[in-house]
Specification:
Elements: E1 4-5, E2 14-24, E3 30-40, E4 47-50, E5 55-61, E6 64-65, E7 72-74, E8 78-81, E9 87-96, E10 106-110, E11 113-117, E12 137-145, E13 153-156, E14 159-165, E15 171-181, E16 188-191, E17 194-201, E18 207-214, H1 223-240, E19 248-254, E20 261-262, E21 267-271, H2 284-299, E22 308-309, H3 315-355, E23 367-368, H4 377-410, E24 414-415, H5 417-428, H6 437-440, E25 445-454, E26 459-468, E27 478-485, E28 491-492, E29 502-505, E30 509-514, E31 522-525, E32 534-536, H7 541-550, H8 554-575, H9 583-594, H10 600-606, H11 612-616, H12 624-641, H13 643-657, H14 666-682, H15 689-699, H16 705-717, H17 723-734, H18 738-749, H19 755-763, H20 774-785, H21 788-791, H22 797-809, H23 814-821, H24 832-846, H25 853-863
Helix pairs in contact: 1-2, 2-3, 3-4, 4-5, 7-8, 8-12, 10-14, 13-14, 14-16, 15-16, 16-17, 17-18, 18-20, 22-23, 22-24, 23-25, 24-25
Bound molecules: (3S)-3,7-diaminoheptanoic acid (B3K) and zinc ion (ZN).
Function: Aminopeptidase N is involved in the degradation of intracellular peptides generated by protein breakdown during normal growth as well as in response to nutrient starvation.
Cofactor: Zn(2+)
Keywords: Aminopeptidase, Hydrolase, Metal-binding, Metalloprotease, Protease, Zinc
C-alpha cells in the first residue's frame, strides 16, 4: 500500500459528464454495463480508470470494440485506455460477485438484500471509473432482476423514470438523478421490504415523498425515524434556510453495514440500528441517536452532496460541518446542555486520545494510505468543534451569512476547507489566517490560566498561555468564553469583558485585565467548552465549589465537578492510598439529588464519573491498575456516601420515569436518566434489600427498554447477585431481536472485572453472535476494546483476545478489523511489560499474509 499526499492534488485530466449504468443483478455474477460520456481536460493521452476486484468483459469506445493490450491494459487496480480522443463515449462491461463481498464495500448481498456502499472508494468495486470526489456526473441507472417477487423494490438515486420487462423476461426499473454527483454518492438497493410512506412540503412548496424501507414486520419501528426526518427537514429550513431539492427521499434500513449510515443522494442507506426503534426494544439514547443520524444524513444533502469535497483530504469540510449541524439540531430539540456535555465527553475521552497517539492527524490531514481509516473522531468531532469555534467567534448571524456565501459560491462544486473559510472571511470581514491553523495542525493545545487580584486597584489580571503537545505547532487562535463570579456566586460583567464573554487568545501568552471589582472574583474559563483544548487547572477547592453551585453555564458546573473527581483520582493514584472526596462535593451532590427543582438529566451527568479510558488520557504514562483501583473506589465511595439520597432520588423520579402519558417527553427522559444513574451506584450496595427490590422493580418495567436495560446494566456491572437471572431472562425475552441482543453482548463485555475476557471469548460462540455482522462484532469486541483495564491486563490476555478477532477479520472485513485495532496502537504510553506485549502483537499482525491496507497503515504508524 502506498501513501497519498494532500500537496499532490491535481485536477482530473478527464470529466465524465453522464453515466448510464445497467445492473443485471445476480447473487454471484452481477453484470454491470457502464456507458460514460467522457471529455478530455488537458493533453493527457491515456485515460486511467480505477477498478478493484472486477472481472472485465469488454470495452467499447464510440461503438468500436477495443482490443486488449493494443487499446487498453488491465492492471490490478486500474484500467488504462490508450490514446483516447478529445471527447468520446466509453462502454465498460464487467461482472462482480456480491455474495462473496464480506467487506461490505461496493455492491454486496447480505440477508437477502443487494446493497451498495461507495464512500470513500467503493464505486471502483462496481465498475471502472474516475473514482474521486471531484468528478461530478449525472447518473441514469437501470436495475434488472429475473425474479420480481424476490426483489419488489429496485432502488437507486434520484427519480424513478421508467419500468418494464425485457424480451428475455427480466423486470427492470430506471432511475435518473438530475444533480451531478461524485461516484461515492451513488447507491443501489434491491430487496423485499415493508414500506412506510409520508410526505413533506418544503418552504419552497415542493411536495416530497418520504419513504422508509425496512425489514418485513418492522414497520411500527420506523415511525419515529420518519418524524425525525420531517423534523430535520423543517429545522434546516428554519435555522439554515435550506430546503430539499428532489421530489423523493428514500431511506433503506439494512442489517449488515460497516458504519452508521450513508448519505447517498436521495437514497440514504442506514444501519438498521439507526432507524428501527420502539419503546420496548430501544433505549432513550437509541431514539436520540436515531434522530441525530437521520438529521446528519439529511443535512449532508447540502453540506456534502450539493457541495462536495474536492479530494478526500477535505473530508472534514462535509463531516465536521455536518456534525456541527447535527449537534445544533439535536440541541434545538430541547436538551442543549445535556447534549453539549455528552459531546465534550466524546472529545475528551476519544479525540484527545487519538490526537495524542500515533494516528494523530489534523482535521485536514496531509497524508493518507487507506481513506477508510480517516472517518475518525478527529475529522468528525474535532472538525465540528472547529466549526463551532467559528460560530462562537462570528456569532449566529454572521456565521449564517457565511454559510449563505459558502453555498452561493460553491453550489454544484467540489470544494475545499479553504473555500469554506474564505466565505466566512468575506461574510465577517475578519482575517482567519491564524484560525486556519486548526485545519493544518494536529494535537490538543493546553491552556494555563493565572489570576492576580489587586484590591487596591480593584483589578483582576488574568494571564492565559497556550502550549501544544506537538512542538512544531504555531500558536492557535483560541476563543475562550468566560464567566466571572463574585465569591457569593453572582455573575459579574466588568467593562473589559466583551458582550459575548469571549476572549481571543492568539499569542503564546496574553494578559487580560478587568476593573471595578470590589473583591477577588472567581474566574471560570472555557464556558460551553468554547475550544477543544485542555485546561491546566490550578483552581482551589473553594473556587471549584463556587462554580459547581453558581456558574450560569451548565458545562462549567459539570466540568468543575469533573475536576473534583479527577483531583481525587489523581491524588489516590499518586499516593497509592485510599481515595477521599471533599465533603463539600458530597454535600453538593446530596443537595442536587434531593432538590426537586434541578434538572434530573444534569444531576445524572454530574454523577457520571470519568471512565478509566478518560483518566488514562490524562497521563503521559498510564498506570493501568492504579487507575482501575481509583475508579472502583470512586464509584464505591459515591455509592456509600450518597446511599440515602440516591434511594430518595430514585423514588422521587420513578413516577415520572414510568409515566405512560409523557413517555418520550424531555422530563420523562431526564427522570429515566437519573433513575438509571442512581441504580448504577446503588447496585454496588449488594447487601441492601431496598436496592434489591428496586433493581427488580425497574427490571420488570417491560414497557421501557431504557429502564429494563438500566437495571440490567446496574446489576451486571456491579456483579450484583441478580445479574445472572436477569441476563438469562433478558436473553430469553429478546433472542429474536439481534439489535437488542447487541446490548446484552455489550453489557457483558464491559464488566470491569477480569472475568470479562473469558466471558467475551465464550460469547463469540453464542448464537446471538455472528462474525460476519459488524453490529455484532462492535457490540461484543469493540465494546470490550474500551474496557480499559481488562484490555490492558498485565498477562496480555486482553490483547490476545482482540488480536485473534482482528486476524479473523483482516481479509473478511478490513474496515471492522481496523476499528478494533485502534486501542492497541498507543503502546508507548504503557509500562515495559505491556510495551513488550503490544509490540509483539503488532509485529505479529504486520507479518500476516494479505495484511489489509487499513491495518498496515495503523501498524506502520504505531511501530515507526
Ligand atoms: N459519509 C458516511 C461515512 C462513510 C464511511 C466510509 N468508510 C456517513 C456519514 O458521515 O454520514
Ligand atoms: Zn457524515
Amino acid at each position: 500500500p502506498t501513501a497519498r499526499y494532500r500537496k499532490d492534488y491535481k485536477a482530473p485530466s478527464f470529466s465524465i459528464d453522464t453515466v448510464d449504468l445497467h445492473f443485471y443483478l445476480d447473487d454471484t455474477c452481477t453484470r454491470v454495463v457502464n456507458t460514460m460520456q467522457v471529455q478530455k481536460r488537458d493533453d493527457e493521452p491515456d485515460l486511467v480508470l480505477d477498478g478493484e476486484q472486477l472481472q472485465l468483459v469488454q470495452v467499447t469506445l464510440d461503438d468500436r470494440l477495443l482490443v486488449a493490450e493494443q487499446d487498453y491494459k488491465v492492471g490490478r487496480k486500474s484500467l488504462t485506455i490508450y490514446n483516447v480522443p478529445a471527447q468520446f463515449s466509453l462502454t465498460i462491461e464487467n461482472t462482480i460477485n456480491p455474495s462473496a463481498n464480506t467487506a461490505l464495500e461496493g455492491l454486496y448481498k447480505s440477508a437477502g438484500v443487494f446493497c451498495s456502499q461507495c464512500e470513500a472508494e467503493g464505486f471502483r468495486r462496481i465498475t471502472y471509473f474516475l473514482d474521486r470526489p471531484d468528478v461530478l456526473s449525472v447518473y441514469t441507472t437501470t436495475l434488472y432482476v429475473a425474479n420480481k417477487e424476490e426483489y419488489p423494490h429496485l432502488l437507486s438515486n434520484g427519480n424513478k423514470v421508467d419500468t418494464g420487462t425485457t424480451a428475455e423476461g427480466l423486470s427492470w426499473v430506471r432511475w435518473h438523478d438530475p444533480y451531478p454527483k461524485p461516484s461515492y454518492l451513488f447507491a443501489v438497493v434491491a430487496g423485499d421490504f415493508d414500506l412506510l410512506e409520508d410526505t413533506y412540503t418544503t418552504a419552497e412548496g415542493r411536495q416530497v415523498l418520504l419513504q422508509f424501507f425496512v425489514d418485513k414486520g418492522n414497520l411500527n419501528k420506523a415511525y419515529f425515524a420518519m418524524e425525525a426526518l420531517k423534523n430535520s427537514m423543517r429545522w434546516d429550513e428554519q435555522r439554515f434556510g435550506l430546503s430539499y431539492d428532489l421530489d423523493i427521499y428514500m431511506v433503506v434500513a439494512v442489517d449488515f453495514f460497516n458504519m452508521g449510515a450513508m448519505e447517498n443522494k436521495g437514497l440514504n442507506v442506514f444501519n438498521s440500528k439507526f432507524v428501527l426503534a420502539d419503546e420496548a426494544s430501544a433505549t432513550d439514547q437509541d431514539f436520540i441517536n436515531v434522530e441525530a443520524v437521520i438529521g446528519h444524513e439529511y443535512f449532508h444533502n447540502w453540506t456534502g452532496n450539493r457541495i462536495t469535497c474536492r479530494d478526500w483530504f477535505q473530508l472534514s469540510l462535509k463531516e465536521g460541518l455536518t456534525v456541527f449541524r447535527e449537534q445544533e439540531f439535536s440541541a434545538d430539540q430541547g436538551m442543549r446542555a445535556v447534549n453539549r456535555i455528552q459531546d465534550v465527553r466524546i472529545m475528551r475521552t476519544h479525540q484527545f486520545e487519538e490526537d495524542a497517539g500515533p494516528m494523530a492527524h489534523a482535521i485536514r490531514p496531509d497524508i493518507v494510505v487507506e481513506m477508510n481509516n480517516f472517518y475518525t473522531v478527529t475529522i468528525y468531532n474535532k472538525g465540528a468543534e472547529v466549526v463551532r469555534m467559528l460560530h462562537t467567534l462570528l456569532g449566529e448571524q454572521t456565521f449564517q451569512a457565511g454559510m449563505r456565501r459558502y453555498i452561493a459560491d460553491n453550489d454544484g462544486k467540489a470544494a475545499t476547507c479553504n473555500d469554506f473559510l474564505q466565505a466566512m472571511e468575506q461574510a465577517s470581514g475578519r482575517n482567519l489566517n491564524q484560525f486556519k491553523r486548526w485545519y493544518s495542525q494536529a494535537g490538543t493545545p493546553e491552556i494555563s490560566v493565572q489570576t492576580d487580584y489587586s484590591r487596591r486597584q480593584r483589578k483582576l489580571t488574568v494571564t492565559i498561555s497556550q502550549a501544544s503537545d506537538k512542538p512544531a505547532n504555531a500558536p492557535f487562535h483560541i476563543p475562550i468564553q468566560v464567566e466571572l463570579l463574585s465569591q457569593q456566586g453572582e455573575p459579574l460583567h466588568p467593562p473589559e469583558l466583551p458582550v459575548n464573554s469571549v476572549l481571543e487568545l492568539t499569542e503564546p501568552e496574553q494578559t487580560f485585565t478587568f476593573t471595578g471589582l470590589k473583591e477577588a472574583p472567581v474566574f471560570a474559563p472555557l464556558a460551553n467548552f468554547s475550544a477543544p483544548v485542555k485546561c491546566n487547572d490550578t483552581r482551589s477547592l473553594d473556587e471549584l465549589i463556587t462554580i459547581t453551585r453558581f456558574a450560569q453555564d451548565a458545562f462549567l458546573r459539570w466540568d468543575a465537578v469533573q475536576q473534583l473527581y479527577s483531583q481525587a483520582v489523581h491524588e489516590a493514584i499518586a499516593q497509592g492510598g485510599a481515595l477521599t472526596l471533599p465533603n463539600a462535593l458530597i454535600d453538593g451532590l446530596k443537595a442536587s439529588l434531593t432538590d426537586g427543582n434541578s434538572d434530573p438529566a444534569l444531576v445524572a451527568l454530574l454523577l457520571q464519573i470519568p471512565s478509566e479510558e478518560g483518566v488514562a488520557a490524562e497521563f503521559k504514562y498510564v498506570p493501568v491498575s492504579a487507575i482501575h483501583r481509583a475508579i472502583t473506589e470512586l464509584h464505591e465511595a459515591l455509592a456509600r456516601g450518597l446511599y440515602t439520597e440516591l434511594l430518595q432520588a430514585w423514588d422521587m423520579h420513578w413516577p415520572q420515569a414510568t409515566d405512560k402519558q409523557a413517555a418520550f417527553s424531555k422530563e420523562a427522559i431526564a427522570a429515566r436518566m437519573l433513575c438509571n444513574t442512581c441504580l448504577g451506584y446503588l447496585a454496588a450496595m449488594t447487601d441492601s434489600e431496598a436496592v434489591h427490590e428496586r433493581l427488580q422493580r425497574q427490571f420488570a418495567a417491560e414497557q421501557s427498554m431504557t429502564l429494563v436495560f438500566g437495571a440490567l446494566q446496574a446489576a451486571v456491572h456491579n456483579q450484583h447477585r441478580l445479574a445472572e437471572v436477569q441476563l438469562a431472562q433478558f436473553a430469553n425475552r429478546w433472542q429474536h431481536d439481534p439489535l437488542v441482543m447487541d446490548k446484552w453482548l455489550a453489557v457483558q463485555a464491559t464488566v470491569r472485572h477480569a472475568s470479562s475476557i473469558a466471558k467475551v471469548h465464550e460469547l463469540t460462540e453464542h448464537s446471538a453472535f455472528d462474525w460476519s455482522n459488524p453490529n455484532r462484532v462492535y457490540a461484543l469486541l469493540a465494546s470490550f476494546s474500551h474496557n480499559f483495564a481488562q484490555l490492558h491486563q498485565a498477562d496480555g490476555a486482553g490483547y490476545a483476545l482482540l488480536v485473534s478477532a482482528i486476524k479473523r477479520l483482516n481479509t473478511a472485513n478490513p474496515q471492522v478489523a481496523s476499528r478494533l485495532l485502534s486501542p492497541l496502537l498507543n503502546w508507548r504510553r504503557f509500562n515495559d511489560a505491556r510495551q513488550g506485549l503490544l509490540q509483539q502483537v503488532l509485529s505479529d499482525l504486520r507479518n500476516m499474509p494479505d495484511l489489509a491496507p487499513d491495518l498496515f497503515e495503523k501498524i506502520e504508524q504505531s511501530l515507526r
